[in-house]
């Protein structure tokens, strides 16, 4: 009896071991098969996945012999993916290519010597001509380019509910000239009975709002100067911006701290708020709700930022030591090609980086964005990794979140100054 | 505490006359009714989140709004809001498609992890409590401390080790990791459980000429079932629900269901709560079943002094 | 115990694989972690130099870290109080034996089975802080039941916010504490209760003077396990609020620094967390050690 029980337990344990040994080992870097590319992104579901799938479709057409290996990790707006990625890079086990925000976010990887210079790739594929000059400027650091953008988003867009504004006697088609004028309009909305004229969400959306205010109050040059030390964080421009931001906070929904951007946008969609400042992926929310541009909703550049395109770009890199480098270059070629960019961007709701895009292919909102991208001054977004490296933006994010809780302007400015000095050294 | 009998108290037959106190005839006193009412209220409170999960998972995206968050679905799960649009059932099919491959793999992870770490834990517990050696307590402390480390701390060196050793990014690596980090808790549970086995039994076995392994196999192991129940259930749940290790050491094509669920719930910029909730239910079903079916053994195992 | 290798050889051999494995994967990696925390490696570049305890000094005087510690203390206190309270009450109510005890037990225990990622999906919804017209989750239920005054901002509350985050944790782990206490209650020998009743003790006195004192080792064990879980809480906060200032605890702060590639800082936070956890295990070990010495 006892022996039987013992052998039963032993047998089960042995079976377990064998089961484990038999499990299919799906090698993510299977060097035996040279014709595959492991693409690491955080586009795991929703419209982003739809966009990725469209891109993969074009890739399979252009390079039918190369197998696409999807290594997506979702969550935390990319922070889960970045953490897992950092570990892999650290351990010298990079994917063939990975998604990263173009701009300053890459400096960490560049400084650690983990990315390959793509300047020759750009030259070979004519990208220096296909992409606008201001974009190439933002992408170049120390004369080298380290990533290929797949799409461009605009972060200084104010989404407006037409009927809410008209109900308060405000013309939805005319953007207020600057922050002060906008605050006056917000007050008007509030007086007319709208409890939350401006809707806001969790920390990164607050940082995005702050960056819009900074651009409005400092102008394109002043704002760009914040990131290389030419504009002081304790100067009068920033002080005005902090003051304006504090005033804006008086008009937002009380539960903003816990709201995701889409829940905050829902207030505008439902007519419970008049304005929301958000990047243009918000377009998908309006489309899903069945609303029409210029009818139920409209957009303008955030008051005070007219003539400026606050950009962020998802882009792909070529890590040093990528196991299947040739396949990775194929992937980069697809992303930067006209077909690839068109397929991706139409599905994802953003605009291509290439200037040879045909505007009529795109829906109404994107057409305005394309026009602006072609004409306006391009600055980098803070909230989306273009303006500042991740440790700097994490410090700012926490300081801005804290300001929402205690509303101490001096403390915020001090924190921003200290964040800048640790980042700029 | 005096040395208790071998058989756990729960195993004593209820009809044993020594156990029964002369009780008054059962009537529904105020106290009793109040107790039942309270118990039932607590049941409702505990089940509130489950209700929300179930109800929301059957609503198509457009029906999931703040004002209707507590209501039952306003339409049947096979109806859609706008013609051709998503239905409540689509939430479930979408969640199932996203999670199904990972579900099978996760069984292959959780079951062996539970069995193996339990078995090793039993052996450890045995030599740390009943067949001891000098400084056994120090070794026990050494092992126990491993339970308390925050796993983020060792993650980067762990990933580095994984690459150096060339381990694959799927559940086989996770299996090793869960066994390793499950050893302390399994050892703890068994060590505390075996304290209730009288030393006399060990002495008697020694006198009969049995060695350590023989004693373990023929005397201790047969008595270990309650301990195994606790460790197996605990380890199964841990391995099934773990997210941190899964995220760093595996990828979506080879990883467990927690990773797939996270991708489902967090991946989109435009959240689909219905699908996410359906996914949460699907991913929780196996562990739920384990607790519902085996819960009584879990408590029985605990009652035999497994975790003191 | 008889001396000689023949006696302690085999058991030591049996446990040695575990010793070696844990030596590497726990102690070795902790040592690696501590080593990183004494360097100035704040970015992806692998160069670093030894800076001693500088990171620790900086962290312990940093407002943000102290705020995260405050949040952690608040969470831990409410979490422990909640699980111990509910676990104890449920065990006490079920101790005498009620019909359908099995069902009640299963219901109270089952939330333990759910992962924090999954429960975060629904608790996020429940703890939504909008009030009034836009309320959803618990605020909405309060509204509809006429308990409108109970609506509040949950984890958005400036000081008590973390208490709200403790709610899902209490929901998930009270059942486990209940199981422990139930085991404790049932473990009190019937003869003891008999004797007390014979001596004329009322039910209440019975519990107060006979049963409860027997429970203190169980209570301590439950306390230790629950508090060490609370120190590590990460998944739950991340899935409900993400990593934001209001609900920041050391574990999430560590995550933020790790994703910003500040290796030295995250290693420092991890080591401090480890030290905090040790504060709990030491009394537990002393108590175990003492009670075993008494038994031998």
Topology:
The complex is a heterotrimer of chains A (425), B (308) and C (296).
Chain A: H1 2-22, E1 36-41, H2 46-62, E2 67-72, H3 79-90, E3 97-101, H4 107-111, H5 119-124, H6 127-130, H7 133-139, E4 140-141, E5 144-145, E6 147-154, E7 157-161, H8 162-167, H9 179-191, E8 198-199, H10 203-225, H11 236-249, H12 261-270, E9 275-277, H13 283-288, E10 297-301, E11 308-317, H14 325-336, H15 338-348, H16 364-375, E12 377-380, H17 390-406, H18 409-424
Parallel strand pairs in A: 1-2, 1-3, 8-9, 11-12
Antiparallel strand pairs in A: 3-11, 4-5, 6-11, 7-9, 7-10
Chain B: H1 30-57, H2 88-129, H3 136-144, H4 152-164, H5 171-194, H6 199-207, H7 212-220, H8 225-241, H9 244-249, H10 257-266, H11 273-303
Helix pairs in contact in B: 1-11, 2-5, 2-8, 2-10, 2-11, 5-8, 8-11, 10-11
Chain C: H1 5-37, H2 54-60, H3 63-95, H4 101-109, H5 116-126, H6 137-144, H7 161-187, H8 190-198, H9 203-214, H10 216-232, H11 235-240, H12 250-259, H13 263-295
Shape of chain B: globular
How large is the count of helical segments of chain B? 11
CATH architecture of chain C: Orthogonal Bundle
- In terms of quaternary structure, the protein is heterotrimer
Q: Which percent band covers the strand fraction of chain B?
A: under 5%
Spatial gap, N to C terminus of chain C: 12 Å
- Principal-axis shape of chain C: flat
Instruction: Briefly note the CATH topology name of the domain at 89-303 in chain B.
Output: MetI-like fold
Q: Regarding CATH, which class of chain C?
A: Mainly Alpha
Q: Structural class of chain B, please? A: mainly alpha
The CATH superfamily label of the domain at 89-303 in chain B reads MetI-like
Question: How helical, in percent, are the residues of chain B?
Answer: 55-70%
Number of helices of chain C: 13
What would you report as the Rg of chain C, rounded to the nearest angstrom?
Answer: 24 Å
Average of pLDDT of chain C: 83
Q: Any idea what the CATH architecture of the domain at 89-303 in chain B is? A: Orthogonal Bundle
Could you write a compact summary of the structure shown?
The complex is a heterotrimer of chains A (425), B (308) and C (296). Chain A has two domains: 36-151 and 315-362, 3-Layer(aba) Sandwich (D-Maltodextrin-Binding Protein, domain 2), CATH 3.40.190.10; 157-310 and 382-424, D-Maltodextrin-Binding Protein, domain 2.
């Amino acid at each position: 009896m006892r022996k039987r029980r013992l052998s039963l337990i032993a047998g089960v344990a042995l079976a377990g071991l064998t089961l484990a040994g038999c499990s299919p080992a799906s090698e993510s870097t299977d060097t035996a098969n040279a014709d595959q590319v492991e693409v690491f992104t955080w586009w795991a579901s929703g419209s982003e996945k739809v966009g990725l799938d469209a891109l993969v479709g074009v890739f399979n057409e252009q390079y039918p012999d190369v197998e696409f290996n999807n290594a997506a990790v979702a969550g935390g707006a990319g922070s889960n993916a970045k953490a897992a990625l950092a570990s892999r890079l650290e351990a010298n086990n990079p994917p063939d290519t990975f998604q990263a925000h173009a701009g300053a976010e890459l400096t960490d990887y560049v400084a650690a010597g983990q990315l390959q210079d793509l300047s020759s790739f750009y030259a070979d594929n004519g990208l220096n001509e296909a992409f606008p000059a201001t974009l190439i400027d933002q992408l170049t650091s120390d004369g080298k380019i380290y990533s290929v953008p797949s799409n461009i988003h605009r972060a200084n867009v104010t989404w407006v509910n037409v009927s809410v504004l008209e109900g308060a006697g405000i013309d939805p088609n005319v953007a207020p000239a600057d922050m002060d004028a906008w605050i006056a309009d917000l007050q008007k909305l509030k007086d007319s009975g709208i409890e939350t004229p401006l809707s806001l969400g969790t920390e990164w959306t607050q940082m995005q709002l702050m960056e819009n205010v900074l651009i409005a109050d400092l102008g394109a040059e002043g704002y760009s100067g914040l990131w290389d030390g030419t504009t002081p964080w304790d100067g009068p421009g920033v002080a005005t911006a902090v003051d304006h931001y504090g005033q804006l906070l008086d008009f937002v929904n009380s539960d903003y701290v816990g709201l995701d951007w889409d829940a905050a946008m829902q207030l505008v969609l439902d007519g419970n708020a008049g304005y929301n400042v958000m990047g243009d992926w918000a377009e998908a929310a309006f489309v899903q709700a069945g609303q029409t541009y210029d009818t139920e909703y409209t957009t303008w550049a955030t008051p005070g930022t007219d003539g400026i395109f606050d950009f962020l770009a998802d882009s792909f890199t070529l890590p040093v030591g990528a196991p299947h480098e040739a396949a990775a270059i194929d992937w980069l070629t697809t992303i930067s090609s006209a077909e690839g960019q068109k397929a991706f961007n139409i599905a994802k709701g953003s605009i291509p980086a290439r200037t040879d895009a045909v505007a009529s292919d795109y829906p109404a909102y994107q057409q305005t964005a394309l026009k602006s991208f072609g004409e306006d001054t391009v600055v980098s977004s803070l909230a989306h990794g273009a303006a500042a490296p991740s440790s700097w933006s994490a410090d700012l994010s926490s300081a801005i979140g804290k300001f929402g809780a205690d509303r101490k302007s001096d403390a915020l400015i001090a924190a921003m100054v200290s964040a800048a000095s640790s980042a700029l050294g | 505490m005096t040395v208790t009998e071998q058989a756990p108290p729960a195993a004593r037959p209820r009809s044993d006359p020594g156990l029964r106190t002369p009780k008054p005839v059962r009537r529904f006193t105020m106290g009793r009714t109040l107790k039942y009412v309270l118990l039932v209220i607590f049941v409702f409170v505990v089940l509130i989140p489950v209700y929300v999960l179930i109800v929301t998972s059957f609503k198509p995206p457009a029906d999931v709004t703040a004002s209707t968050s507590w209501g039952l679905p306003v339409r049947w799960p096979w109806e859609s809001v706008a013609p051709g649009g998503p239905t409540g059932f689509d939430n479930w099919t979408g969640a199932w498609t996203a999670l199904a491959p990972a579900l099978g793999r996760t069984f292959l992870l959780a079951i062996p992890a539970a069995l193996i770490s339990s078995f090793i834990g039993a052996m450890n517990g045995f030599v740390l409590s009943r067949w001891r050696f000098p400084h056994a307590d120090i070794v026990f402390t050494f092992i126990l401390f491993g339970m308390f480390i925050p796993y983020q701390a060792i993650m980067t060196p762990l990933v580095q080790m994984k690459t150096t050793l060339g381990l694959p990014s799927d559940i086989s690596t996770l299996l090793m990791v869960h066994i390793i980090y499950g050893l302390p808790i399994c050892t703890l549970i068994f060590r505390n459980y075996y304290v209730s086995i009288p030393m006399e039994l060990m002495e008697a076995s020694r006198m009969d000429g049995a060695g350590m392994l023989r004693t373990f196999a023929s005397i201790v192991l047969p008595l270990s079932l309650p301990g195994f129940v606790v460790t197996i259930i605990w380890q199964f749940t841990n391995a099934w629900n773990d997210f941190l290790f899964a995220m760093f050491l595996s990828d979506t094509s080879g990883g467990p269901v927690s990773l797939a669920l996270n991708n489902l719930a967090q991946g989109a910029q435009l959240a689909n709560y219905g699908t996410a909730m359906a996914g949460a239910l699907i991913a929780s079903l196996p562990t739920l079943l384990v607790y519902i079916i085996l819960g009584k053994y879990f408590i029985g195992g605990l009652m035999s002094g497994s975790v003191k | 115990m008889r001396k000689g290798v023949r006696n302690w050889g085999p058991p030591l051999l049996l446990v040695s694989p575990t010793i070696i494995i844990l030596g590497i994967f726990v102690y070795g990696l902790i040592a690696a972690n501590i080593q990183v925390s004494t360097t100035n490696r704040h970015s992806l570049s692998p160069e670093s130099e030894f800076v001693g305890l500088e990171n620790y000094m900086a962290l312990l005087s940093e407002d943000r870290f102290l705020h995260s510690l405050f949040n952690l203390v608040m969470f831990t206190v409410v979490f422990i109080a909640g699980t111990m309270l509910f676990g104890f009450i449920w065990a006490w109510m079920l101790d005498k034996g009620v019909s359908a005890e099995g069902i009640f037990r299963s219901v109270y225990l089952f939330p333990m089975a759910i992962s924090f990622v999954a429960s975060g999906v629904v608790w996020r919804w429940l703890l939504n802080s909008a009030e009034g017209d836009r309320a959803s989750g618990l605020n909405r239920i309060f509204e509809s039941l006429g308990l409108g005054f109970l609506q509040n901002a949950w984890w958005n509350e400036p000081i008590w916010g973390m208490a709200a985050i403790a709610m899902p944790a209490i929901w998930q782990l009270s059942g486990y504490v209940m199981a422990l206490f139930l085991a404790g209650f049932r473990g009190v020998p019937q003869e003891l209760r008999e004797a007390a009743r014979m001596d004329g003790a009322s039910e209440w006195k019975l519990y107060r003077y006979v049963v409860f004192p027997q429970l203190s080792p169980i209570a301590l064990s439950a306390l230790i396990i629950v508090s060490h879980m609370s120190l590590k809480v990460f998944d739950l906060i991340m899935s409900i609020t993400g990593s934001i200032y209001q609900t920041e605890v050391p574990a999430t702060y560590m995550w933020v620094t790790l994703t910003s590639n500040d290796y030295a800082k995250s290693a420092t936070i991890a080591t401090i967390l480890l030290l905090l956890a040790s504060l709990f295990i030491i009394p537990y070990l002393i108590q175990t050690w003492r009670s075993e010495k008494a038994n031998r």
